[in-house]
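Hi support team,

I've been running sequence recovery on a batch of backbones for a student project. Most finish fine, but this one hangs at about 90% for roughly twenty minutes before it completes. I'm not sure whether the input is malformed or the queue is just slow. I've pasted the structure tokens below so you can try to reproduce it. Let me know if you need the job ID as well.

Thanks,
M.K.
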């Protein structure tokens, strides 16, 4: 039987550049029971590709196998079968560790240390010179929103969950990684914290980093991800860009006021009127022509947006379809 760390031969992408993450038929089976005679399949034949510089979101319900896949990619656990590459090296290759960052969902952060001491200890593991640490640690604390408080001087046992998540993110970036793996990075954060985390992800992308993360907050995923994949019951159901999965449509939802009822009916489908005199529906035909016609009718636009299902709607529909077929 071939070793799971043997480098597989995969096709290159269109730019002849090896993908950052590449897996083929990756599978993980756990044995349970007193005699270890029962099998639980956590991941089934997962094949995916993540390219350099993109933000990739892995979605799925609890127990879908997301964390298992993440741990396989990081070499924390070994696959039962299948092969994969991370930064061109077989999964589990120790030389890759210096080039990646990882934020677990429930990280243990040595709560007897202060935030500053913890980041110093992590920098020491990467053999980062003291002179670099003195510059990088304050920059990271400012990046995650902890520089203007005395949090870096407190023992982390006194941190809130959101503060732990922030210092965990700083630890993830301490070695200036090429690839960042985030397991539920928005967990425990308030709306301001989620906004900051989203800005950090976008900044990392602008800096050329590759970001691979799991999240249940699909509205955030929709805003930052280039491509997403849905995993359920250990099986990769679909993957692609948001336009590929949700569709690119030219239909707009519109809410307006005023205008001629008879003319509006020709332009707007599912037309509904509200007690306040406003109306709403979907534009039929060319939106620019309709807006010009609406101005001639003396009407005005209150709100207008491109009509397509949200990522959350698509996710629920996809997962429910799989559940119904089991």
């Amino acid at each position: 039987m071939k070793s799971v760390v043997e480098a597989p031969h995969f096709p290159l992408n269109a730019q002849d550049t090896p993908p950052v993450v590449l897996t083929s038929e990756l599978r993980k089976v756990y044995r349970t029971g007193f005699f270890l005679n029962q099998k639980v399949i956590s991941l089934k034949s997962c094949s995916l590709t993540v390219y350099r510089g993109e933000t990739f979101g892995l979605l799925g319900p609890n127990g879908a196998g997301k964390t298992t896949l993440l741990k396989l990619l990081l070499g924390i656990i070994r696959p039962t079968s299948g092969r994969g590459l991370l930064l061109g090296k077989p999964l589990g290759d120790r030389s890759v560790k210096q080039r990646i960052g990882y934020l677990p969902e429930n990280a243990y952060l040595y709560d007897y240390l202060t935030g500053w001491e913890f980041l110093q200890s992590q920098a020491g593991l990467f053999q980062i010179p003291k002179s670099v640490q003195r510059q990088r640690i304050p920059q990271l604390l400012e990046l995650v929103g902890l520089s203007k408080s005395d949090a870096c001087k407190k023992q982390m046992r006194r941190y809130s969950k959101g503060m732990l998540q922030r210092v965990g993110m700083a630890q993830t970036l301490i070695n200036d990684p090429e690839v960042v793996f985030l397991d539920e990075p928005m967990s425990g954060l308030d709306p301001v914290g989620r906004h900051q985390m989203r800005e950090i992800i976008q900044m990392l992308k602008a800096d050329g980093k590759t970001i691979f993360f799991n999240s249940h907050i699909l509205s955030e995923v929709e805003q930052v991800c280039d491509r997403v994949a849905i995993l359920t019951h250990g099986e990769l159901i679909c993957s692609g860009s948001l336009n590929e999965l949700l569709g690119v449509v030219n239909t707009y939802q519109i809410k307006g006021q005023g205008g001629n009822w008879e003319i509006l009916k020709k332009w707007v489908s599912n037309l509904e009127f509200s007690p306040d005199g406003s109306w709403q529906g979907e534009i039929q035909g060319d939106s620019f022509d309709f807006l010009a016609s609406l101005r001639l009718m003396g009407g005005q636009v209150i709100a207008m947006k491109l009509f397509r299902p949200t990522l959350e709607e698509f996710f629920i529909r996809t997962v429910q379809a799989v559940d119904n077929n089991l």
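--
Follow-up from support: It reproduced on our side and the slowdown came from queue contention, not your input. The chain has a mean pLDDT of 87. No action needed from you.
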